[in-house]
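Tokens for chain A. Residues wanted.
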């Protein structure tokens, strides 16, 4: 076969592959932010381009008569953190969803009755999920300012929680990126073929900066595609006739 013919075949393979290959939702990354001042600002986290969702951690005081309180260690703490308003708007304007994580490892929270649960649900809806225009009509300002946090489109999405560095999980559970890609992700792909997957959920932004974990696993399937294309290229070009 002539070199020109083989080059045309290779071009056809690459063209078909580029149209049929689409990244799976399993490569989307959600990151926790808010528990270490060394992690930088929320805006900076969103500007990395690594994350599709940011979880603000945490609302860690609520229920049974307690005044709800936010705990973004070192960034902001208390019943009001409106200093984050512009950063949340910045993230959302760049198509990054921002959620509020409730609970956390060291807070004071509990729901003592169905009425208690209803009151807390009302608090969440009024303060974090109500549209700014509705708040203005009632002359209200939410704890995070004039923002509306995102709501998951589905309630049955599966997220794969992972520590972003060994010291993020002192008790164990850390999976090195290479092991994740070669040993774990093929099984995750099987699950995602029949279930709605939200991708990876990493703890946390500080440890991700430390380890560069998200950047190593981001678009892992695209990286696999590139390796496939490289192998095809070498196999084809390696047999090109010089005549």
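Reply:
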């Amino acid at each position: 076969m002539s070199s020109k013919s083989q080059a045309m075949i290779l071009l056809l393979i690459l063209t078909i592959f580029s149209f049929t290959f689409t990244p799976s939702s399993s490569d989307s990354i959600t990151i926790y932010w808010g528990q270490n001042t060394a992690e930088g600002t929320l805006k900076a986290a969103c500007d990395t381009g690594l994350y599709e969702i940011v979880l603000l951690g945490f609302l860690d005081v609520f229920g049974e008569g307690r005044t709800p309180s936010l705990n973004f260690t070192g960034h902001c703490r208390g019943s009001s953190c409106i200093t984050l308003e512009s950063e949340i708007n910045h993230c959302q304007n760049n198509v990054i969803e921002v959620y509020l994580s409730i609970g956390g490892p060291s807070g004071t929270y509990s729901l003592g009755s169905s009425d208690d649960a209803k009151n807390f649900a009302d608090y969440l809806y009024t303060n974090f999920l109500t549209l700014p225009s509705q708040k203005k009509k009632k002359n209200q300002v939410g704890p995070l300012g004039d923002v509306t946090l995102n709501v998951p489109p589905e309630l049955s999405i599966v997220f794969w929680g992972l520590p972003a560095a060994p010291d993020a999980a002192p008790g164990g559970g850390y999976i090195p990126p290479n092991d994740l890609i070669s040993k774990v992700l093929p099984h995750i792909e099987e699950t995602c073929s029949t279930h709605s997957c939200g991708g990876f959920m990493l703890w946390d932004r500080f440890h991700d900066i430390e380890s560069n974990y998200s950047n190593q696993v981001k678009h892992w399937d695209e990286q696999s595609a590139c390796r496939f294309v490289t192998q095809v290229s070498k196999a084809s070009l390696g047999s090109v006739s010089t005549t």
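The first strand starts at residue 29 and ends at 33. The chain has a mean pLDDT of 82.
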